[in-house]
Amino acid sequence: MRTVDQGTGTDAEPDFDESPTESEEVKAAPPQSRRMLVLCAVAGFVLGGGVLGLLWGLSGVHAGALDDALAACQALDRVGELPDTSRDAQPSLTPGLTPERLHRMTAARELSAAAAQVNATYQPLADHIDGVSRMVLSLHFNDISGQRHLVQAQELCGRL
Fold it and tell me: Are 126 and 116 in contact (CB under 8 A)?
Protein backbone atom coordinates (compact mmCIF):
# COMPACT_ATOMS: atom_id res chain seq x y z
CA MET A 1 0.00 0.00 0.00
CA ARG A 2 1.32 3.42 -0.94
CA THR A 3 0.95 6.56 1.04
CA VAL A 4 1.20 10.14 -0.20
CA ASP A 5 3.44 12.57 1.63
CA GLN A 6 1.26 15.52 2.53
CA GLY A 7 3.97 18.12 2.19
CA THR A 8 5.41 17.29 -1.21
CA GLY A 9 2.55 15.43 -2.82
CA THR A 10 4.78 12.59 -3.81
CA ASP A 11 4.64 8.98 -2.86
CA ALA A 12 6.20 8.07 0.40
CA GLU A 13 7.85 4.77 1.07
CA PRO A 14 5.46 2.19 2.44
CA ASP A 15 5.63 1.22 6.02
CA PHE A 16 5.90 -2.49 5.23
CA ASP A 17 7.69 -4.63 2.68
CA GLU A 18 5.57 -5.01 -0.36
CA SER A 19 6.08 -8.33 -2.17
CA PRO A 20 5.83 -8.33 -5.94
CA THR A 21 2.65 -9.68 -7.39
CA GLU A 22 2.49 -12.79 -9.52
CA SER A 23 2.17 -10.85 -12.73
CA GLU A 24 5.43 -9.03 -11.99
CA GLU A 25 7.17 -12.40 -11.40
CA VAL A 26 5.94 -13.75 -14.70
CA LYS A 27 7.07 -10.62 -16.48
CA ALA A 28 10.46 -10.83 -14.83
CA ALA A 29 11.16 -14.43 -16.04
CA PRO A 30 12.33 -14.61 -19.66
CA PRO A 31 9.82 -16.35 -21.94
CA GLN A 32 10.83 -19.92 -22.72
CA SER A 33 11.10 -20.84 -26.36
CA ARG A 34 8.56 -23.37 -27.63
CA ARG A 35 10.61 -23.93 -30.72
CA MET A 36 12.35 -26.99 -29.26
CA LEU A 37 9.04 -28.51 -28.13
CA VAL A 38 7.49 -28.07 -31.58
CA LEU A 39 10.62 -29.43 -33.25
CA CYS A 40 10.57 -32.53 -31.04
CA ALA A 41 6.86 -33.10 -31.70
CA VAL A 42 7.33 -32.85 -35.48
CA ALA A 43 10.40 -35.11 -35.39
CA GLY A 44 8.49 -37.69 -33.32
CA PHE A 45 5.57 -37.62 -35.73
CA VAL A 46 7.82 -38.05 -38.77
CA LEU A 47 9.86 -40.80 -37.12
CA GLY A 48 6.73 -42.66 -35.97
CA GLY A 49 5.13 -42.40 -39.40
CA GLY A 50 8.33 -43.67 -41.01
CA VAL A 51 8.51 -46.67 -38.70
CA LEU A 52 4.85 -47.54 -39.31
CA GLY A 53 5.35 -47.24 -43.06
CA LEU A 54 8.42 -49.45 -42.92
CA LEU A 55 6.63 -52.10 -40.87
CA TRP A 56 3.65 -52.03 -43.21
CA GLY A 57 5.89 -52.37 -46.23
CA LEU A 58 7.75 -55.30 -44.70
CA SER A 59 4.60 -57.07 -43.53
CA GLY A 60 4.72 -59.39 -46.54
CA VAL A 61 1.24 -58.80 -47.92
CA HIS A 62 2.43 -59.73 -51.41
CA ALA A 63 4.45 -62.69 -50.21
CA GLY A 64 1.24 -64.44 -49.14
CA ALA A 65 0.00 -64.90 -52.72
CA LEU A 66 2.13 -67.97 -53.31
CA ASP A 67 1.06 -69.42 -49.98
CA ASP A 68 -2.60 -68.83 -50.87
CA ALA A 69 -2.16 -70.45 -54.29
CA LEU A 70 -0.45 -73.48 -52.73
CA ALA A 71 -3.19 -73.77 -50.11
CA ALA A 72 -5.83 -73.55 -52.87
CA CYS A 73 -4.14 -76.42 -54.71
CA GLN A 74 -3.95 -78.47 -51.53
CA ALA A 75 -7.64 -77.83 -50.81
CA LEU A 76 -8.53 -78.83 -54.38
CA ASP A 77 -6.46 -81.97 -53.98
CA ARG A 78 -8.24 -82.80 -50.71
CA VAL A 79 -11.62 -82.52 -52.42
CA GLY A 80 -10.73 -85.88 -53.88
CA GLU A 81 -11.60 -87.57 -57.14
CA LEU A 82 -14.56 -86.00 -58.85
CA PRO A 83 -16.82 -88.15 -61.02
CA ASP A 84 -16.58 -87.54 -64.76
CA THR A 85 -19.91 -88.18 -66.41
CA SER A 86 -19.24 -85.98 -69.44
CA ARG A 87 -18.72 -89.01 -71.72
CA ASP A 88 -21.96 -90.71 -70.74
CA ALA A 89 -24.86 -90.33 -73.13
CA GLN A 90 -27.33 -90.64 -70.27
CA PRO A 91 -25.46 -89.86 -67.06
CA SER A 92 -26.85 -91.58 -64.06
CA LEU A 93 -27.52 -89.63 -60.95
CA THR A 94 -24.27 -89.09 -59.18
CA PRO A 95 -24.23 -89.11 -55.43
CA GLY A 96 -23.88 -85.74 -53.79
CA LEU A 97 -20.60 -84.75 -52.24
CA THR A 98 -20.15 -84.61 -48.50
CA PRO A 99 -20.31 -81.18 -46.87
CA GLU A 100 -16.59 -81.42 -46.03
CA ARG A 101 -15.68 -81.83 -49.70
CA LEU A 102 -17.94 -78.93 -50.67
CA HIS A 103 -16.31 -76.73 -48.02
CA ARG A 104 -12.85 -77.65 -49.33
CA MET A 105 -13.94 -76.76 -52.85
CA THR A 106 -15.22 -73.40 -51.66
CA ALA A 107 -11.99 -72.84 -49.72
CA ALA A 108 -9.92 -73.64 -52.81
CA ARG A 109 -11.92 -71.12 -54.84
CA GLU A 110 -11.57 -68.38 -52.21
CA LEU A 111 -7.86 -68.96 -51.68
CA SER A 112 -7.12 -68.91 -55.40
CA ALA A 113 -9.15 -65.70 -55.78
CA ALA A 114 -7.17 -64.12 -52.93
CA ALA A 115 -3.88 -65.12 -54.55
CA ALA A 116 -5.01 -63.70 -57.91
CA GLN A 117 -6.10 -60.46 -56.32
CA VAL A 118 -2.64 -59.89 -54.85
CA ASN A 119 -0.63 -61.23 -57.78
CA ALA A 120 -2.12 -61.37 -61.29
CA THR A 121 0.04 -64.35 -62.30
CA TYR A 122 -2.33 -66.55 -60.31
CA GLN A 123 -5.41 -65.38 -62.23
CA PRO A 124 -5.51 -68.43 -64.57
CA LEU A 125 -5.42 -70.72 -61.54
CA ALA A 126 -8.27 -68.77 -59.95
CA ASP A 127 -10.29 -68.92 -63.15
CA HIS A 128 -9.88 -72.68 -63.53
CA ILE A 129 -10.62 -73.42 -59.88
CA ASP A 130 -13.70 -71.20 -60.15
CA GLY A 131 -14.87 -73.24 -63.14
CA VAL A 132 -14.39 -76.47 -61.20
CA SER A 133 -16.19 -74.96 -58.23
CA ARG A 134 -19.22 -74.02 -60.34
CA MET A 135 -19.37 -77.56 -61.69
CA VAL A 136 -19.04 -79.15 -58.24
CA LEU A 137 -21.50 -76.88 -56.46
CA SER A 138 -24.11 -77.39 -59.15
CA LEU A 139 -23.41 -81.17 -59.13
CA HIS A 140 -23.29 -81.19 -62.96
CA PHE A 141 -20.30 -83.48 -63.38
CA ASN A 142 -21.20 -83.96 -67.04
CA ASP A 143 -20.13 -80.37 -67.73
CA ILE A 144 -17.32 -80.65 -70.30
CA SER A 145 -15.92 -77.20 -69.52
CA GLY A 146 -15.91 -78.00 -65.80
CA GLN A 147 -13.91 -81.17 -66.45
CA ARG A 148 -11.51 -79.17 -68.66
CA HIS A 149 -11.11 -76.60 -65.87
CA LEU A 150 -10.30 -79.42 -63.46
CA VAL A 151 -7.52 -80.75 -65.70
CA GLN A 152 -6.09 -77.25 -66.23
CA ALA A 153 -6.22 -76.43 -62.52
CA GLN A 154 -4.42 -79.64 -61.66
CA GLU A 155 -1.73 -78.88 -64.26
CA LEU A 156 -1.24 -75.37 -62.89
CA CYS A 157 -1.03 -76.74 -59.37
CA GLY A 158 1.62 -79.18 -60.50
CA ARG A 159 3.78 -76.26 -61.71
CA LEU A 160 3.68 -74.43 -58.38
Answer: yes
